[in-house]
Amino acid sequence: MARDGARPAYDPAGHDGELRAALQEVRTGRWLSMRTLLERTTHWWQWTQRTQVLAAGAAGTDVIRAWLAEEPDSVPATVMRARVAVERALRAHRERHRRTHELWIEAWDMSQGAARAAPRDPVPWVCLLALAQLDREQSWEEHRAPPPDPTLPPGPWGLLEEAVKRDPHNREAHHRMLQFLYARSASGRPAEAAAFAYLAAEDAPPGSALHVLPLYVRVERYRRDGGREAALDLHWVAEDATREALHAHTAWFQHSAAAERSPLDLNHLAHALWGAHRFADAARVFDAIGPYRTPLPWAYRTAVPGDHAQAAQVFLQARARSRSAAPPTDG
């Protein structure tokens, strides 16, 4: 990829041009492009990623309802209905909306229905995992299953098992488990999440996005410690931080296909390598990112974490610093 100085923009579709086109249609209330795209999606990693992005775009519309009105027996539409219901429940939870519990139960029912309609699909189980974080007290029995390792707490491990049974090393399923563990440790350091991330990375094959999980935990630790007010750059040049960054670069980036890389994973890896002063490696990841920056983790390196303009500036500074220390490559 050419090394240009263009200012990158956030696009949830990233390098997936077909997804971008379908998402634009969804936002205007049209569903035919979404149906066609999902019919052509044959890999579980891509199906999981595309349904997640499309659901975020559809959550503020009635597009899935319109699709089901025309095709009530459509399995993809049934899965998308669950996806959208989960997205709405999670948004309500973040906003502390009074209908959160109602939307949660509705999303759980729809996810169960999607699991019955699509028994080989990991996404309904990913949906159920996503909802587990709302049960912070672990009142539901399925959220108190015994852990697979003594370093981990009871949790929705059965839901994770169902997802990975259908798609081993499913990226989103593991991130949803991380979110559940973060919710458990909302007032403290995410030690349980770190243990889970390391175990998942150890078991992952070369090229798996699970090798990037420890970088997310490190960012979360930094955020909870107060962001740029706590230890500043020393957090990122520590020996274990550098080791995590290099492992993700070697085990994931160097073995993964460009089309399969999540923009969020790429941005976390570039951020970690830049923070560890591994500028030549970071430059190659910045080249892979191209024009599709994500707000996180860059926003956590700003004075105001919610300021996307500042986050973009941090990204540009990190990219420029990394490229200035790396040899040029042909575009």
Automatic annotation (TrEMBL):
Region spans: Disordered: 139-160
Extent of Pro residues compositional bias: 147-156
Name listed for the protein in its UniProt record: DUF4034 domain-containing protein
Organism: Streptomyces phaeoluteigriseus
